[in-house]
Specification:
Helix content: 40-55%
Oligomer: single chain
Mean pLDDT: 87
Strand order of the largest sheet: 5-6-4-7
Largest sheet: 4 strands, antiparallel
Order of helices and strands: HEHHEEHEHEEHEHHHH
CATH topology of one domain: Arc Repressor Mutant, subunit A
Distance between the termini: 26 Å
Radius of gyration: 20 Å
Shape: globular
Length: 251
């Protein structure tokens, strides 16, 4: 293993492993996301989580509402975490369509929202891979096939637009594309040198977190040598290498 693998590379968020993060990562990578204790013990052991630590984590996570436990000692994700699994699946396998120059535009029509509500809405729209052009106006190229949630449509008006500004120039102002690409390349470089299971687990969990922020733009709007597909491919290879549910991002 490279001497630098365990050190956090510049611009890369490598969160330390805990029993909770390992359990959540394994379940977030499992379809359907339910496993009996005996399988969890086997899957988390390579990442330094022993049986007693696992059972303590399962108890705390069930009490906190992260997990549900059935009578036969099978643990599954709560509804909140099922929603996160769907977002992460979409990050790894985004559904796109051919782009013909149109942009999705979302104009916020609801008023009287407080700071917390506005922050929550910004988070929700960013998860939909929209970017804020100015206060209350969000947009992106119309190359995704995902629907807009009903709760968003209740407070916003969707439109189709063709901005006068050159599309690649506009995209570069809406998303930090060069910064995103640099972090993706750092993840790929460090993953290539990571050999211990815990190091690879941590790196690929960080890779999924990073893919959640990929704007998934049409190729013609991206900088040269965009590493998004390479990062997705490396993650897919890691899943095949494990032959087991692979780690997804966990807080």
């Amino acid at each position: 293993m490279s001497a630098n693998v365990s050190a956090e590379p510049a611009g890369v968020d490598l969160r330390p492993l805990s029993a909770r993060s390992v359990v959540l990562s394994v379940l977030l990578g499992t379809h359907p996301p339910r496993l009996p204790v005996k399988d969890l013990v086997r899957l988390v052991e390579p990442f330094g989580v022993g049986g007693s630590a696992l059972r303590a984590a399962l108890s705390r996570m069930t009490a906190a509402g992260d997990l549900r436990r059935t009578d036969d000692a099978v643990y599954g994700l709560s509804d909140r975490l099922l929603a996160r699994q769907r977002r992460q699946d979409e990050a790894v396998r985004p559904r796109t369509r051919a782009w013909h120059g149109d942009w999705e535009m979302l104009v916020i029509t609801a008023t009287g929202r407080g700071p917390a509500e506005r922050a929550e809405l910004r988070t929700r729209l960013a998860r939909l891979r929209l970017a804020e052009l100015r206060e209350g106006v969000w947009l992106r190229p119309a190359n995704l096939t995902r629907p807009l949630p009903a709760e968003v449509l209740e407070i916003a008006e969707p439109c189709t637009a063709r901005p006068a500004r050159p599309a690649a120039e506009l995209a570069a102002t809406l998303w930090p594309l060069n910064t995103w690409a640099a972090t993706a390349r750092a993840l790929l470089a460090h993953a290539a040198g990571a050999h211990r299971p815990s190091d690879r687990f941590t790196l690929f969990a960080a890779a999924v977190r990073h893919l959640l922020t990929d704007p998934v733009l049409p190729p013609e709007l991206l900088p040269a040598d965009w590493p998004g597909d390479r990062l997705r491919g490396a993650y897919a290879a890691y899943r095949a290498e494990l032959g087991e549910p692979a780690p997804e991002s966990a807080d």
